[in-house]
Each structure stands twice: as structure tokens, then as C-alpha cells.
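Internal tracking record. Fields below are filled automatically when a chain is submitted to the structure queue. Please do not edit lines marked as system-generated. If the sequence contains nonstandard residues, flag them in the REMARKS field before resubmitting.
Queue: standard
Priority: normal
Entity type: single polypeptide chain
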Amino acid sequence: MGRNTVIYYFYTFFRNFAFFAAVLVPFYTEWGGITLFQAQLLQSWFTFCVFALEVPTGAVADYFGRKYSLFIGAIAVGIGAIVYGLVPNFLIFILGEFIFALGIALMSGADNALIYDSLDSVKKRQESKKIFGQAYSFSMMGMLVSAPLGGFIAYRYGINYAMILTSVPYFFAAFLALFLVEPPRRKAMIEGTKYFQIVQSGIWFFAKHSKLRLMALDAIIIASTGYFVIWLYQPVLLKLNIPISLFGLIHGAFVFSEIVVAANFMRLEKMMKSSANYLKLGVVLTVLGFFIVGIFPSLWSVFLLIILAGGFGLTRFEYYSALMNKYINSAERATVLSTISMLRRFALFILNPIVGLLADRNLAMAFLSLGILSLTALLINHEQKKDLRIVGKA
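SYSTEM-GENERATED OUTPUT FOLLOWS
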């Protein structure tokens, strides 16, 4: 289904055309008038909402159709952006985060599941790592193009307009989702299957699968620490008195590093001789990025952070998606992927206020703590390495 792949590439492009990402921290601390700790409390509220909605919305995608889940999700995020940017009020922010969470939960899992089944239907699932990597690159291209524009919008018209105008590309992404074609499922769903039976089967499939749990644990640790690069590099720029008009260009460099890594999953894996070696390299570089900026805060160390911890940390979940999909039944794929994503959200729910509080009190300590947490990914047992060598050749 080449048509689905092409439409999905453009869907991910516009779904990530986020003007506000370039000025995310100034949006909260300067326009919104709140601290990093309060901003991270909002993110914990967001992750709690996604945590509560993740599996049910994944089951909705499996039961009613992935394309409709993607359509409604993009519409919801667009509405959330408008609500969020209207008034600098903490209660409004809480409402905006809930709407964002609903949209993200509806899209999470449904996208990868639809594309993987599309490839499977034409016996091309071996291309999943390539397709997921390229789709991620398209999504990052959306952020790359929107970042400088977001910085300009914030500087010229006001920081909140970077948030409000983000709704436009999301509404266009929703329009594109309607042109996706639902692929056949390898294991057809029995007519009359109950909603909660779908939820239960997806959760139990993940719970009893030890290999899948190990992969998910690794992905969650590094992707979660990599997530905080987004939140912590901009406070360093503010301390260095970097003009806000330049934030978009710097964020563009951040996104470009993710694009380069995601577009070259197969090449990097080949260079490192195996999936296990590539994943180990990703941990080492992520740790190095956090430690360097924590010890030597400067514009150059920020660039190293966004290239190393950003490029390799934030792309890890996408790489693992292709590996984990090989273990998941087609009919339960969206639900199982949503379960794994839900666990990552839960980890962020715990980490958000802790990192926010650390960043308000001692920014360097926040970076060093995240570097130490990233190191724990190296403790994943040797059995996973053997599994990865097998899956990487599949």
C-alpha cells in the first residue's frame, strides 16, 4: 500500500508542524508567568490524562478504524492549541493539556499499527524499520520548517500566537487522514467483539511477553530522558541571554539532528554491526550529552546536547517500534503499542515534577541526574542482546 505510506508521510509532517516548540519554555515562563516546576506539573497532568486515555483510545482505533482515530486526534490537538494560547491562566492551561492529551492518545499507536499492517498486507513488513524511520524524519521535517517560523512569529506577533497558529497545520493533517485506506487485519476481528475484550487482550499480550517488556523498558528509559532535552536546553539559552528570535534556528538544529539519525537507522545499525551495538551507542551518546552541558554550560555544549541526547535519545522509541512490532499480533497491534506508550507516559508523570523542581533550583543538577538515569539502560540483561541480534536480522 504505497498510497498509505505517502499520505502518512505528509500526515506526520503537518501533525508536527508545531510553531510553539521553538519557544516552549518562554511561552510558559515569560508569557504564561509560571515556573519550570509548574510547567512540569502541567506535563504530569498531561501524561496522566494520556495514561488514562491511551489504551481505551487504542482499542477505539482497533475497533472502529485507525484512520478515524488519527482524524479525530489531529482535530483535538488543533482545538487544544487555540484554547492554550488565548489567556495566560493556569486553569486554562490545564484544560488545554487535557484536550492535547485526548488528541495525542487517539493518534498514539494507531499510526504505526496502520502502516505496519499496510506493509504486512503486501508482504513488505521487513521494510518497517525503513518506513518508520522515514516517517519520523518527515515529522521532524515539519518541526524543522516550523521552528524558525515559530521563532519569527513569537518575536513579531507575540509568543502565544506561535501556539494558536499551530492549529492550522493540525487541521490540515486531519483532512489528510481521511484519505488513508484501512488495511486488512491478519487476524480478523470477530463481529460483535466487545470493546473491553480488545483492551484486555492487548494488555495481557504485553504483560506475558518477557522479550517485549525488556525492549519496552530500554525504550522508555532513554526516550524519557531524551524528552527532557526539549525542556532544559531553552532555560540554558535564556541564562546565556540568547535572543528569542534565534530560538527557532537553534531548535531547527535540534530537529535536524533527529532527522539525520532517524533517516539512517539501517545505516547506523550496519555500521555498528548489530541492533544491540547501535542501542548501546545511543545510551552512551545520550549520557555524554547530558554530562557535558551539566558541567560546562555554554552555547556549544547546548549544541552537543541537542545533537547527542536529542538525536539519539528522542529517536529511540521509533527505532524500537519496528523491533517490537514483530512480536505483536495484527488485531491487537494498536492496543499493545498504546499500552507501551502508556507506560512511557507513566514514567514521565513521575519524572516531570522531579526534573522541574531540580531545574528551578539547580539546572546543572537536573542535567547530571538525567545522565545518571540514562546509564541504567546499560543494565538491561544479556538475554535482550541475543534477542535483538535475531530480530535485527528478521
